[in-house]
Amino acid sequence: MRKISFWLFLLTFTVCAAHGQDAATQQQIDKLYGQIQDVIETQAAQTKRMDDLAKQIGDLRDKLNQPAAANDSASSEELKKLAAQVQEIDRKRQADNEQIIKAIEKLAKAGSGSTAHKPSPTVTPANSSENPTPGAGVSPKGYNYAIAAGDTISSIAKACRAQGVKVTTEQILVANPGLDSTKLYVGKKIFIPDPNAK
Predict the structure, then answer these.
(1) Residue-wise pLDDT tens digits, 145-158
(2) Which of 45, 55, 114, 191 lies 20 to 30 Å from 74 when distance is taken between CA atoms?
(3) SS (H, E, C) the chain
(4) HSE-CB of 173 using CA atoms within 13 angstroms
(5) Is 130 within 8 Å of 155 (Cβ atoms)?
(6) What is the mean pLDDT of residues 107-127?
(7) For residue 116, which of 78, 77, 160, 58 has the smallest C-alpha distance?
(8) pLDDT number for residue 85
C-alpha cells in the first residue's frame, strides 16, 4: 500500500506539474498569439498606406502626362476674347499715333511760320541807343531784327535769306560783337548786315 500511495502521489504530482506546465505554456502561446495578431494588423495598416501612396503617385503621374490644355490653362474661347482685346488696344494705339503725328505736323507748320521774321530795313545811326550798333569793320547799312521765341542764329539767317538778304550766321555774329548765340533774349534787337553794302 505504501507503494501504491507513493505511485499515486507521484502520479498526482506529475499531473499537477504537467498541468502547471500546460498553464504556463498556454500563457506563452496566448502571448505569442497576441503579438502575432499585432504584427498582422500593423502589416495590414502598412499595406493600406502603401496602396494609398501608390494611388497618389499614379494620380500625380497622370496629371503630369496630361496635355497642357487640361492643366490650369485658358480655354480657347478665353484666348479668342483676349486676342480681340489686344487687337482693339492696337487699333487705339495706331489711332493715337496718327493723332500725335497730325498734331506734330500742325505744330511744325505753326512753328515754322512764327520763326520767319521779315527784317525791317533801317539806317542805323552809330550813336543811337535804340538800335544796335554794328561791330567794327561792318558797314552800317543793314537791317534791325527783333529776336523771337525759339530763334537761333541759324534760323535768323535762314529767315533773312528767305526775305532776300543773303547773310550767314558768321556775318551776323561779326556784326553783333558780344552776342552769345546760346543766350538769345526775346525782343532784343540785333543788326543784320547787308552783305551787298560796301
Answers:
(1) 888 888 999 999 99
(2) 55
(3) CHHHHHHHHHHHHHHHHHHHHHHHHHHHHHHHHHHHHHHHHHHHHHHHHHHHHHHHHHHHHHHHHCCHHHCCCCCHHHHHHHHHHHHHHHHHHHHHHHHHHHHHHHHHHHHHHHHCCCCEEEECCCCCCCCCCCCCCCCCEEEEEECCCCCCHHHHHHHHHHCCCCCCHHHHHHHCCCCCCCCCCCCCEEEEECCCCC
(4) 10
(5) no
(6) 52
(7) 160
(8) 92
Beta carbons within 8 Å of 109's beta carbon, 6+ residues apart: none
Q: What predicted TM-score, i.e. pTM, was given to this entire model?
A: 0.36
Write phi, then psi, for 117 (nearest 5 degrees).
-100, 140
Whether residue 192 contacts residue 172, with contact meaning beta carbons closer than 8 Å, is answered with: yes
pLDDT above 70: percentage of residues in the chain: 71
Instruction: Enter the C-alpha cell of residue 178.
Output: 558780344
**Residue bearing the bigger pLDDT, 66 or 161:** 161
Query: The C-alpha cell of 26 is what?
Result: 498556454
Q: Can you say whether the dihedral through the CA atoms of 148, 152, 155, 160 is positive or negative?
A: positive
Integer Cα distance of 83 and 29 in angstroms:
78
The answer, yes or no, to whether residue 129 has pLDDT greater than 70, is: no
